[in-house]
Amino acid sequence: MTDLVDEGRPEAVDRADTVRGLRVFTLPVVLWACVGALVLGLQVHVFASWLADGGYRIEKAPPAAGGGDMERIADVLIPLLSVAGAVALAVYLYRKCRASRRLTFDALLFIGLLLASWQSPLMNWIHPVLASNINVFGAVASWGPYVPGWQGAGAHQEAELPLATLSICMTAMMVAVACGKGMGLAAARWPRLGRIRLIALGFLLVVLFDVAEPLVSFSGVSVWTRSVPELTVWGGHWYQFPLYQMVASAFFGAALGAVRHFRNERGETCLESGAALLSKGLRPWVRLLAVVGGANVSIALYTGTHILFSLLDGAPPDQLPDFFRPPAGY
After folding, report:
1. Which residues touch 212 (CB under 8 Å, ≥6 apart)?
2. Residue 316, preceding bond cis, omega within 30 degrees?
3. pTM to 2 decimals?
């Protein structure tokens, strides 16, 4: 019995505090928050280097040859509509949070996707996969060349459309919500469906949502400059579309939909699991960092899929105008 320690002794209190500290440190929400903090630190480094070096200045290019008023209007209207939609969604989520008096997961996911959109240029990590029209309002040079390990084009050569990217964040948000709700309806209708089948169903749902995405290529905002010919529709034209884009989007959307659907007994997602054990002051910040980490990992899954396909023989479109950056080959 000499091994037992009296709980009233200081040694027992110290040991209890140590065990409690270790328990908190190993919580999933804390581990995911560490991922989010590391990614945000990298993001701050990249953008600071980009701004300090003047990397946002993009090389000039001639305007669209023969471009009419409709093209010029679209170049301005699309990013402005993207901003307006993002603001409207942010207001809606704010009101939901205010009504529930807490930060909802959907609000955290929206912020996480915004903070994860910095990965946009990373699919051009090795080869040019997606080129943007520098005539679109708000176009800047890519911050990709300032990411450690970058192998693509140098500074000032690639275009990024941060305003138009907001529409991608909104779309990803809506797809995740729709996918999660679809999985919830399926689980209620067929209770015996396991997690794997539900996730597979979510994957198929996102593919169905993406059926109309090839038509987006006709907008002229961005084009696919590298695509595997056998897996491409309209191959060789500036509006070519790789069909595996829908697969990559489905991986991304199904992952977020599954995170949103599956909850523990406290109503926490796998990213937030254990947040209830944290102090009230610390809890929202750790939850936010955790969701930021999860959103970045999900987008990395999407981006990595395109990087892997870019290693295969890809066909660039013919006669790509000079105002699309990066060019079809470098």
Report:
1. none
2. no
3. 0.87
Instruction: Quote the CA–CA distance of 137 and 114 in Å, as a whole number.
Output: 19
pLDDT single digits (tens) 140-153: 999 999 999 999 88
Nearest alpha-carbon partner for 213 in 268, 182, 253: 253
Q: For 148-189, how does the pLDDT look when each residue is reduced to its tens digit (9 = 90+)?
A: 999 988 899 899 999 999 988 888 999 999 999 999 999 999
Q: Going by C-beta distance under 8 Å and a sequence separation of 6 or more, which residues neighbour residue 204?
A: 250
Question: Position of tokens 């079809």?
Answer: 328
Residues 6+ apart with CB under 8 A from 315: 226, 227, 228, 229, 232, 235, 236, 240
